[in-house]
Design a protein that fits this description.
The complex is a heterodimer of chains A (202) and B (286).
Chain A: H1 2-39, H2 45-59, H3 62-70, H4 73-76, H5 79-98, E1 108-116, E2 122-129, E3 137-146, E4 149-157, E5 160-161, H6 162-176, H7 181-200
Antiparallel strand pairs in A: 1-2, 2-3, 3-4, 4-5
Helix pairs in contact in A: 1-2, 2-5, 3-5, 3-6, 5-7
Chain B: H1 11-27, H2 35-43, H3 70-98, H4 101-114, H5 116-125, H6 129-144, H7 153-156, H8 166-172, E1 180-183, E2 187-190, H9 191-203, H10 205-213, E3 217-218, E4 221-222, H11 224-241, H12 243-250, H13 255-266
Antiparallel strand pairs in B: 1-2, 3-4
Helix pairs in contact in B: 1-9, 3-11, 5-6, 8-9
The chains are: A alpha+beta (202), B mainly alpha (286).
Chain lengths: 202, 286
């Protein structure tokens, strides 16, 4: 009987360790995949964007992130609006980050540690190091194990969370335009088009 | 009879004022602000000082916001924005466009090295002995082999730079930040941050040396020119680094609120890691 309990204890700690290890590997893979897209400067922007979108879809839980960001307004939206919002949100994220592809200057992503959080997630700490430039950039990835596999739910750069900051931004947009969710759709469409124009020139 | 020439730093008065006002601020508790309440008052031009403790249960995670001075802060933020647009931002763009990258890197390296003593002191105060040794080693290597810090030799040797300051020390000691304040010219801040900056101003050996040994006075402050011009250059460099981000931030619907939430996360007044989304189908190991 004792052996049984010990075995369970060992097994569960190894699951924990395995989750942290696999989260490490997960973020590492994501980082390397993205870096190879960034390095491929002779590929067309369209191809790079579509590869980037594939990476984001595979590794990020965009629907959950989008739902969190729009907060209380999610309840006020119908199914069609949900779908439209998530699709616009994804486009906005892709176009926004695509506009920064050219800023890549031989940086490397180095994983420096991981820890568990109270809400069941794992935070992977990493650094983006630029050769020759002093302080590295500190990026934390919040990863959860879901029924759809490991997913990134947030990226925290120098303590600043992408989702918290976007939530603040979208909330300001909606509240300053009379609390109408459709106003956010217009805002997102404008942002997407703006970024798309900029990316077209690259 | 010979007069004793005692140099009294004018800032000692300022320290006295802020240390006494920081105490009640640090004792005050962070209060949860209902996001509905917050946005309702934002669009109405925010006359609120009262902070509610309603908890929003529709979504997971609550942003802890401490901004009882919002109307005043918004006013100062506006003045800062105008000053920035008229003077500081053009200067920053000039610095970005006219100064070659090589020079920028050398200058940044030199100024970072100048901060090493303050970083070292704070590493120790936080009990980070290993890090303090790294900081000290970096300082020694870069000051000698790096020609007074102009070359960041230590990074190539594998010793990465790690920043530190008095505000972080106070935070680790458990001192609360106090309410969010926007300072004229200096921008987003808090009482904890302000006291930290004043502490650094006095502890910094470069400032200390200039205050006591520089030959010229500037508006009554000995060493004023090297002290304030160094501070100005550091600010300019920081402004230049932030140009891309601030360009995006200034285009948002409510830049004041964006700067505020960024500041509060960056100074760990809001702990962003615990505030992110949790998926509906999360699998938690026991």
């Amino acid at each position: 009987m004792k052996f049984y309990f010990v075995a369970i204890a060992l097994f569960s700690t190894s699951i924990l360790a395995a989750t942290q290890e696999s989260s490490n590997a997960f973020v590492n893979e994501l980082g390397n995949d993205v870096i190879s897209i960034l390095r491929n400067k002779h590929q067309s922007m369209a191809v790079r964007k579509s590869n980037f979108r594939k990476e984001i879809r595979e590794h990020f839980d965009l629907p959950s992130i989008g739902k969190f960001i729009i907060a209380r307004y999610w309840r006020r939206m119908n199914d069609a609006q949900h779908k439209k919002y998530i699709s616009l949100f994804e486009d906005a994220v892709i176009e926004n980050y695509a506009s920064q592809f050219d800023n890549y200057k031989q940086q490397s992503l180095v994983i420096t540690g991981s820890q568990k959080t109270k809400d069941g997630g794992t935070v992977i700490s990493s650094e983006i190091r630029t050769p020759g430039k002093g302080t590295p950039l500190h990026i934390k990835w919040k990863v959860f194990k879901t029924s759809r596999g490991l997913k990134v739910l947030d990226v925290i750069v120098e303590n600043v969370s992408m989702s918290l900051t976007l939530r603040n931004e979208y909330s300001s947009v909606i509240s300053s335009r009379g609390g109408k969710v459709d106003s956010l759709f217009v805002y997102l469409k404008d942002k997407i088009n703006e970024d798309r124009e900029e990316n077209r020139k690259k | 009879m010979r007069r004793l020439n005692i140099e009294k730093p004018k800032f000692s008065y300022i320290i006295a004022i802020f240390l006494t006002s920081a105490l009640p601020a640090s004792i005050s508790m962070a209060q949860m602000v209902d996001m509905d309440f917050l946005e309702k008052n934002q669009s109405q031009g925010a006359e609120n000082i009262e902070v509610i403790t309603d908890e929003e249960t529709l979504y997971k995670g609550k942003a802890t916001v401490m901004d009882p001075f919002e109307p005043i802060n918004r006013g100062i933020f506006h003045v800062n924005s105008v000053l920035d647009a008229l003077l500081i931002r053009p200067l920053a763009y000039a610095y970005q466009d006219l100064v070659p990258d090589f020079t920028k890197d050398r200058l940044s390296s030199f100024l970072s090295n100048l901060r090493a003593p303050v970083i070292f002191v704070n590493d120790l105060l936080q009990g980070e002995i290993k890090q303090s040794l790294a900081t000290l080693t970096r300082f020694l290597i870069n000051s000698t082999f790096g020609f007074f810090g102009v070359l960041d030799v230590a990074s190539y040797a594998g010793l990465e730079a790690k920043n530190n300051n008095f505000e972080e020390t106070f935070r680790r000691w458990g001192i609360a930040s106090g309410p969010y304040i926007v300072l004229p010219l200096f921008g987003p801040s808090s009482f904890r941050n302000l006291v930290g900056d004043v502490a650094e101003f006095f502890v910094d050996p470069y400032n200390w040396y200039m205050r006591n040994h520089h030959r010229k006075k500037f508006f009554g402050q000995r060493g004023g020119v090297p002290i304030y011009s160094r501070a100005a250059i550091v600010s300019l460099i920081a402004r230049e680094k932030a140009l891309a981000i601030t360009e995006k931030l200034d285009k948002t619907e409510d830049p004041y609120a964006q700067y505020r939430i960024l500041y509060m996360q960056n100074r760990l007044i809001i702990n962003a890691i615990e505030e992110s989304a949790v998926p509906d189908d999360v699998i938690i190991n026991q």
